[in-house]
Every structure is written in structure tokens, then in C-alpha cells.
From TrEMBL:
Protein's name according to its UniProt entry: RNA methyltransferase
GO cellular component: cytoplasm
UniProt source species: Rhizobium setariae
Any single GO BP term: RNA processing
Domain RNA 2-O ribose methyltransferase substrate binding, chain residue ranges per copy: 46-122
Length: 287
């Protein structure tokens, strides 16, 4: 028995359900999580990978179901995840590789999958503090872009991502995959454009909108004197006029070559790390 099993208490026989049939109703319910409406109704989502699942458990995310393939049987870290799931009142399933492939839509699935309770931060609970940076995304459509932005925002030390208007779901499997675990680190908020505009007025933030027609070079924006909201436009249409006009400043990233614009996630990364550079300089001076 590993130290961790000791810490969490041993798993007793009968606490793990074995499933080999694709027709099992529990598996059908889990597969249904590939549809947004079902994720919203259950308030749950799927995340793959043993390390990621353990990290999520350790940071207090509520697990409903842990699924592992037979290959994981007896592995200390899988046992640890199973014991924690049982301790949290969740269900543990040992399944065939075929079942795991069908749940994750992958030929070579990860050995472990967790079904977690989704979490949304309420917009009006966000009270930005000095030196904090948030990313606000207008109608982001592409799951890969959203996942990459959540991952990049996490890496750049941002405090949260605000999804404005009709957006792709941060808890979709493709998005969760692209976050590489950052979905568990960075709070995600959703808001209508009206709610966002109301919040920004009272938030005390400097809203920096990125725009192809921005008058200011992004390197000259003020990232220091107030908390920053970096506002990014939709992949196809860019920012609508109401959001762009309400921002404190519109910045552009000067480009060379023939491309009309940068990919949304790339543009977000460029400006986020510029903001970080300004803040780190300030920290160095203060320190
Ligand atoms: N056709 C769209 C337009 O007219 O804005 C292009 C949208 S671009 C793919 C997606 C978003 O990335 C833009 O709305 C903007 O927020 C940001 N972006 C991309 N390239 C940029 C640049 N060179 N300067 C400023 N923002 C940029």
C-alpha cells in the first residue's frame, strides 16, 4: 500500500464498478457530456490525464466520477485518485480500453478521466486589485483558441478570463484539452455585453481593447497604474463598436508581411506578456 493510500484510507472491494459494455447507462450518461446542453444540465465536465486529475483533486475541485482503464489497476497514483474520489463521495469506474476510447473519442485514450463539477465565477464578484490583469473575450468561437488563451493567461499570471456574449464552452472536452490543466487554475466568467459594460464602469480597470485600427501601439499602453482588462475581438468580426468605444484605449500590434491580422490566441499572448513585462519591471523597481 502506498503512503497516499494510507493518507486517504484504503479502497475497499466493491467500491469500484467494473464496466466493459458500451451500452452501460452510466457510460451513456458520460458520453452525453460531449453535448453542451448536457454539460450545462448536469453542471459537469470531463478532464483527461492522471496528473491533471490529481492536481484538480488537490486544489479542491469536486469530482463526481473517476474512470480508469484496466491498465491503471494497482498503480499507486491511480489508487490514490480512486481513494480520493471515494472519500469525496464520487463514483469510481474501472473500464475496458474500448469504453475509455468511446468516452474520450480517442484511439489511444489517457489511462484516467475525471468528471468534475464545473465552476463559474460571477462577474460582479470580480473586484480587480492593483497589478491584476484579466482577459475579456468577445464571442470567442474556436475551442482551441479559448483553451490556448486560458492556458496562456494562466502562464502570464492573469487573474481570470471573462467570456462576453455567445461563446464556445470552456468546459467542452476540446477546450479543456487545449488548456492543458489551466482550466483548473484560472477562474472563468461569462457575461452578456450589457453586463460586461456595466461591470467595467465600476471596476476601476483600464480596459485595453485590441483592434486592427487601434491608434496606439500596444507597447505604449498603461498596464501599471490600474488593473487591466485586455479586451479581445471575435475571430471573424473583431470587436463590435459598442465594446470598442467603451474601452479606455484601443491598441494595435504592428504587423509586417501580408497577413491581415494575428490569430486571436496569438494576439492575446503577445499583449498579455507585454502587460507582464511592464508589471515585472515595476516589481523589480519596488523590490
Ligand atoms: N477580421 C477581424 C477584424 O477585423 O478585427 C480580425 C479578427 S482577429 C483574427 C481577432 C482579434 O485578435 C481581433 O479582434 C483583435 O482583438 C486581435 N488582433 C489580431 N491581430 C491584431 C493586431 N495586429 N492588432 C490588434 N489586435 C489584433
Amino acid at each position: 500500500m502506498s503512503d497516499h493510500r494510507h493518507e486517504d484510507g484504503p479502497r475497499r472491494p466493491g467500491q469500484v464498478k467494473e464496466i466493459t459494455s458500451l451500452a452501460n447507462p452510466i457510460i451513456k450518461d458520460i458520453k452525453a457530456l460531449s453535448v453542451k446542453k448536457n454539460r450545462e444540465a448536469s453542471g459537469t465536465f470531463m478532464a483527461e490525464g492522471l496528473k491533471l486529475v490529481l492536481d484538480a483533486l488537490e486544489t479542491g475541485w469536486k469530482i463526481e466520477t473517476l474512470i480508469y482503464s484496466k491498465a491503471g489497476q494497482g498503480k499507486p497514483l491511480v489508487e490514490r485518485a480512486a481513494a480520493r474520489t471515494i472519500a469525496a463521495g464520487g463514483l469510481v469506474l474501472e473500464v475496458s480500453e474500448k469504453v475509455l476510447s468511446s468516452v474520450t473519442h480517442r484511439d489511444n485514450p489517457q489511462m484516467v478521466v475525471g468528471i468534475f463539477k464545473s465552476r463559474w465565477q460571477s462577474l460582479f464578484d470580480i473586484r480587480p486589485k492593483p497589478h491584476e490583469t484579466f482577459v475579456a473575450l468577445d464571442r470567442v468561437r474556436d475551442p482551441g483558441n479559448l483553451g490556448t488563451i486560458i492556458r496562456t493567461a494562466d502562464a502570464a499570471g492573469a487573474s481570470g478570463v471573462i467570456l462576453v456574449g455567445e461563446t464556445t464552452d470552456p468546459f467542452a472536452l476540446e477546450t479543456v484539452r487545449a488548456t492543458m490543466g489551466s482550466i483548473f487554475s484560472l477562474p472563468v466568467t461569462r457575461a452578456t455585453p450589457h453586463e460586461f459594460l456595466k461591470w467595467q464602469k465600476s471596476s476601476g480597470t483600464n480596459v485595453i481593447a485590441t483592434h486592427l485600427k487601434g491608434a496606439i501601439d500596444y507597447r505604449k499602453a498603461d498596464y501599471k497604474s490600474r488593473p487591466v482588462v485586455l479586451l479581445m475581438g471575435n475571430e471573424q468580426a473583431g470587436l463590435p463598436d459598442d465594446l470598442a468605444e467603451a474601452a479606455n484605449v484601443k491598441v494595435r500590434i504592428p504587423q509586417q508581411g501580408r497577413a491581415d491580422s494575428l490569430n486571436l490566441a496569438v494576439a492575446t499572448g503577445v499583449v498579455l506578456f507585454e502587460a507582464r513585462r511592464h508589471l515585472l519591471t515595476l516589481a523589480d523597481i519596488d523590490g
